[in-house]
């Protein structure tokens, strides 16, 4: 624990002390306490954690984190609070942990689970007493769902509260954002786990006994495995996109941060238009990768001093096709590939690479075109100062119908009015962006060139 900040060590110590106090009444209970059930559930949870640690299953992710949570919630419904707090401790203390501060991580994990189980058990038993009889002895739906839902809610809330605190103490997150999203993102899964825990508890108390309760873990394992595979695949997608964007940033450092902002503006348009969440995510990918074709453009042209010749401009205008070729084999991008290819088309047919017009231009490309132009106008570049957001929106409105789709322009304007624009990132050409050497003037587009600037602005 020496590598942890003092505040984190103190926080973990306080959590461990609180967990010990919650479990302390177990020392005073006699033989009448349900020690057999406590031992069985503790052993079961420990075995579940050891399956995750097994070398044959750890590498493949066959047993994802959280798949055995129904065991803890079943313990919260079956056992008194001080015994429920003990169920997770042995398994958490022997669970897989990273090499850095492994002991501290295990102590923290055991303490927070013990506190969450104790709180879940206490609230579940309060509702059980309010019902006047133990619902597990004679299950009556929907009354039997109330203690399970309350236990799952308490379990989730305690974990979220403790996790926010450790983010502040160990990672120095600001207090205003440390708890953001922790409860809402985990509440749904834990309510499902609570239902599975209720099924385990009912079967545990039934004539079939604990062996029947083990059957509940099979569907929970399958569902957790499917979700884990989804998140693993999503992480791989994100890593692919990050690698491509970083490659573009290295090649064309003057647009650093531009791709992320175009992705953000594309999401704003999509949400204003009421698009489905999966399509909104696709448009975010399209915005982030819209300039990936610059990898096929000679670096000397991207960094050239002075105006471009018509021949050089022709090479620059090939970057949408290069980008489409680069991402052609990335199946998860779907419609984003069309946006990458056509984001420099214009409604009047004077864009490139194919001179498409009107609704022949894919909708995704019309979204990204507006987002690209907006960020280009509101970002500082070595050859132009950023325009204020109202001025950029006014310019987009002026070009709507000829250059841009009026519907996309109106959606971005409405979203900006409602939410504002917080770019967060700075381009490499902005003062204070961390560049060691001052940026050289970037090539400008000659007045006689076809309409459409290289950076997407009208």
Automatic annotation (TrEMBL):
Disordered: annotated segments: 424-458
Keywords tagged on the record: Hydrolase, Membrane, Signal, Transmembrane, Transmembrane helix
Sample GO molecular function, one term: hydrolase activity
Cell inner membrane found in the keyword field: no
Taxonomy, superkingdom: Bacteria
Pfam families assigned: HD_5
Coiled-coil ranges per UniProt: none
Native source organism of the sequence: Streptomyces chattanoogensis
Signal peptide: 1-28
Chain ranges of the HD-GYP domain: 233-428
Record protein name field: Metal-dependent phosphohydrolase
InterPro entries (alphabetical): Cyclic_di-GMP/3'3'-cGAMP_PDE, HD/PDEase_dom, HD_domain, HD_GYP_dom
Segments passing through the bilayer: 71-95, 107-124, 144-170, 182-204, 210-228
Classification via SMART domains: HDc
Record's keyword annotation contains Membrane: yes
Residue ranges of every copy of the HD domain listed in the record: 255-377
SUPFAM superfamilies named in the record: HD-domain/PDEase-like
């Amino acid at each position: 624990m020496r590598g942890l900040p003092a505040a984190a060590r103190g926080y973990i110590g306080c959590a461990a002390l609180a967990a010990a106090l919650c479990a302390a009444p177990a020392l005073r209970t006699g033989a009448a306490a349900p020690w057999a059930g406590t031992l069985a559930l503790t052993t079961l949870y420990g075995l579940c954690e050891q399956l995750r640690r097994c070398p044959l299953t750890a590498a493949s992710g066959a047993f994802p984190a959280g798949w055995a949570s129904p065991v803890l919630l079943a313990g919260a419904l079956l056992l008194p609070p001080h015994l429920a707090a003990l169920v997770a401790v042995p398994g958490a203390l022997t669970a897989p942990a990273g090499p850095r501060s492994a002991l501290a991580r295990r102590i923290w994990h055991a303490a927070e689970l013990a506190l969450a189980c104790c709180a879940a058990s206490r609230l579940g038993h309060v509702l059980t007493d309010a019902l006047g009889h133990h619902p597990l002895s004679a299950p009556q739906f929907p009354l039997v769902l109330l203690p399970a839902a309350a236990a799952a809610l308490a379990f989730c809330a305690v974990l979220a509260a403790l996790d926010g605190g450790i983010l502040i103490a160990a990672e120095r997150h600001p207090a205003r954002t440390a708890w953001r999203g922790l409860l809402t993102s985990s509440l749904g899964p834990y309510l499902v786990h609570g239902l599975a825990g209720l099924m385990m508890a009912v079967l545990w108390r039934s004539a079939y006994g604990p062996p029947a309760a083990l059957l509940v873990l099979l569907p929970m394992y399958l569902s957790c495995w499917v979700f884990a595979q989804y998140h693993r695949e999503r992480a791989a997608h994100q890593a692919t996109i990050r690698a491509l964007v970083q490659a573009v940033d290295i090649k064309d450092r003057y647009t650093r941060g531009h791709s992320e902002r175009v992705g953000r503006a594309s999401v704003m348009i999509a949400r204003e238009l009421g698009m489905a969440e999966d399509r909104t995510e696709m448009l975010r990918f399209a915005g982030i990768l819209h300039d990936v074709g610059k990898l096929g453009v000679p670096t000397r042209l991207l960094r050239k001093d002075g105006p471009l010749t018509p021949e050089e401009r022709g090479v620059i205008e090939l970057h949408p096709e290069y980008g489409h070729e680069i991402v052609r084999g990335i199946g998860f991008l779907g419609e984003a590939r069309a946006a990458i290819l056509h984001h420099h088309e214009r409604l009047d047919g004077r864009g490139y690479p194919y001179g498409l017009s009107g609704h022949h231009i894919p909708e995704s490309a019309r979204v990204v075109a507006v987002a690209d132009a907006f960020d280009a106008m509101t970002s500082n570049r070595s050859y132009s100062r950023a325009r204020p957001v109202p001025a950029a929106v006014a310019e987009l409105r002026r070009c709507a119908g000829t250059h841009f789709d009026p519907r996309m322009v109106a959606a971005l304007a409405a979203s900006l009015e409602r939410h504002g624009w917080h770019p967060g990132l700075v381009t490499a050409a902005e003062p204070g962006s961390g560049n060691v050497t001052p940026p050289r003037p970037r090539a400008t587009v000659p007045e006689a060139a076809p309409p459409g600037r290289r950076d997407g602005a009208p």
